[in-house]
Write a structure and sequence with these properties.
single chain; 10 helices; 304 residues; alpha/beta; 35% helix
């Protein structure tokens, strides 16, 4: 839509490419070309070498540096160690004579990629590696992104993942830290690419244990019809309604339903809304804060 044409910027960061906004772009190739407009305009692009589209964006860049884990890169993470509270890894860079130890006080293996991109952008903006290393140790994460609300007797987390690939990454990342079951609360937006709905249901069942499918900005569409499309994806895995997944069109009620299902050592992930401050329905737009709603629900149920 060329909204950024009046702006100039120093860096472009490419993280990954997956099916998104196809209601507008129609094809993944057209979506990729639109993203390339940002790469073409940046004096320096910072590209994820582990994404299969890296070579395409490299061909569009004026100049670029790479980052990654699996692929040899200008900025590379090795010896990654995860725990229930943090991630440690060794950073290798051509300007450094030895590996730099990086400590991230957050969870989710994909955050290693986010950290690498931020490290590269900061360094090429003039910060020293020592300044970057120190700043990362203090970073508590972005609100609404794998934001932990409660740890005991079960964990509750708020995350923004609203597509199947993002949900898969989130569930895979948290699985090693969960002793019990993962219970997902998620929906699919109305007036947006309907092709995302089936995969969301499928992914929630393949990588989680239980799910409550609910509203997520239904807008002019019937929430129940959206949820049926999500449920088809869940059923494709052999999961049964009322056994492993439920449909609850009211998000506040869905959150409470999921919390009631949770047992000791389980994790409830409230996915799709993250940091957003509104919930759009057919005839109204409600103020909404997922973290506040989760805390209120826990208090009502005597689980805080």
């Amino acid at each position: 839509m060329r909204r950024l044409e009046p702006l100039s910027y120093d860096h472009a960061i490419f993280t990954n490419l997956s099916s998104e906004h196809l209601d507008y772009h129609k094809t993944l190739e057209a979506y990729r070309e639109a993203k390339a407009l940002l790469i073409q305009r940046a004096p320096l692009s910072i590209l994820n070498a582990d994404d299969p589209n890296c070579h395409y964006f490299a061909s569009q860049a004026q100049r670029y540096v790479s980052y990654g884990i699996e692929t040899k890169s200008n900025w590379q993470a090795r010896n990654i160690r995860e725990s229930s509270t943090h991630i440690d890894f060794e950073l290798f860079h051509r300007d450094s004579k030895s590996a730099l130890d990086i400590h991230l006080p957050m969870i989710g293996s994909y955050n290693v990629y986010n950290a690498l991109a931020a490290i590269a952008a900061s360094y090429h903006s003039g910060l020293t590696l020592g300044m970057i290393q120190e700043a990362l140790t203090q970073f508590q994460g972005v609100p609404g992104r794998t934001q932990l609300i409660q740890r005991e007797p079960f964990s509750v987390m708020v995350d923004f993942a609203h597509t199947a690939p993002a949900l898969e990454k989130a569930l895979k990342a948290i699985r090693p830290q969960v002793k019990g079951r993962i219970i997902t609360v998620i929906g699919a937006a109305g007036e947006r690419d309907p092709g995302k709905r089936f995969p969301i249901g499928e992914t929630a069942m393949r990588f989680g244990d239980l799910a409550v499918f609910t509203e997520e900005d239904s807008r002019s569409e019937d929430t129940s019809l959206i949820l049926e499309q999500v449920a088809k994806g869940a059923r494709s895995t052999g999961a049964r309604k009322g056994k492993r997944f439920w449909l609850n069109p009211d998000r506040a009620a869905a959150i409470r339903q999921a919390l009631k299902l949770a047992k000791t050592d389980d994790l409830v992930i409230l996915s799709g809304k993250g940091h957003e401050q509104t919930l759009e329905r057919q005839h109204e737009t409600l103020p909404w804060d997922e973290v506040t709603e989760a805390k209120q629900a826990l208090k009502e149920l005597g689980l805080d």
